[in-house]
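Researcher: I need the complex structure. Ligand is iron/sulfur cluster. Inputs:
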Amino acid sequence: MDYLGKEIKKLGFGLMRLPMIGKDIDIDQTKVMVDEFLAKGFTYFDTAYVYGEDGASEKAAKEALVDRHPRESFQLASKLPIWCCETKEDMQKVFDISLERTGAGYFDYYLNHSLSNDKLDKLEEFGAWEFVAQMKEKGLVRHMGFSFHDTAEVLDELLTKHPEQEFVQLQINYNDWESESVQSGKCYEVARKHGKPVIIMEPVRGGALAELTPEIQKIFKEVNPDLSVASWAIRFAADLEGVITVLSGMSDTEQMRDNLSYMTDFKPLDEKEKETITKVAEILANTPTVPCTNCKYCIEGCPEKINIPELFKVFNRRNVYGALEQTGNRFNEIVKDGGKPSDCIACGQCEGVCPQHIEIISLLSDISEKFE
Ligand code: SF4
Ligand code: SF4
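Model: Output:
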């Protein structure tokens, strides 16, 4: 069956976690990655107004991609963060800044960013749906949709109310497929019911599904020693019907080459592979971790400059591996450059923007008790 974006190859380049040199994006390495990606026939790039400090991701998209390759040879997506808009007029400002930073002339895909129930009233009040539709009428947007982090029920209501939306971007991975909080599987079914093609984000759960315990890695390696642990997560997502592309936030050339090695000539999962993934998902479901995807939305507005995602990473590592010494050292490194968990003043800014609805304040208090 034909659907929007069917012709796009099933690996998209997420520009959220680009390689870094200190606090700056490593633009030379990004250029190498962009070129290799395009050379293998992949064409979809995903950025956003809020990715990186002061629009660093959109600016990198210009420098590494837009300025160096014919505009029609790739698709570029960006997003409207309603939480950055204080007035209706700010939507236009944000959009214009994204266009200017990327130099793209138009966006192939443009999304209302990170929607959840608590943002919907503001979207209606500001006329955000109509705004994006107007940008489309002007030829500045080719296809409009939204990225989403809430329950299947909310998604169902949203798609019923807004059938004009052409696609949805969902967090889908084998770890969240059955999860009652993320509801990957149920949200996917709702999108299918409404006939909407899906762009998949967080297939590797912010990298967590690439860094599994040695016991779990062994389960994968026994079935296929040549495949990386991350490949199982990407292939699980790419195997679904009606998918435009699977976004992978690639952070270095090595990761990209690994992704390209099995996605250039993508082979669907066989029965044995599906069973293996189900087995690993069951093990993970019984291992409690903080479901942080390292999106970093919480960092910029934190008045105490607490590096929340890095603290959660360390906390998860200690819980899953019991690696006391290494995690203790890493903790000291993190708080050397930023705030300590006990510096949190419970202002709630971070919880207001966290797409995973994590109870950050109470977890920071736990981390403080364990590590400080
Ligand atoms: S609640 Fe704490 S961690 Fe969150 S933004 Fe405020 S100070 Fe930072
Ligand atoms: S705590 Fe939430 S907002 Fe912060 S990085 Fe993790 S998932 Fe993103």
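Model: Summary of the prediction. The pocket of iron/sulfur cluster (ligand 2) is lined by residues 292-298, 308-309, 353-354, 356, 358, 360 (CB under 6 Å).
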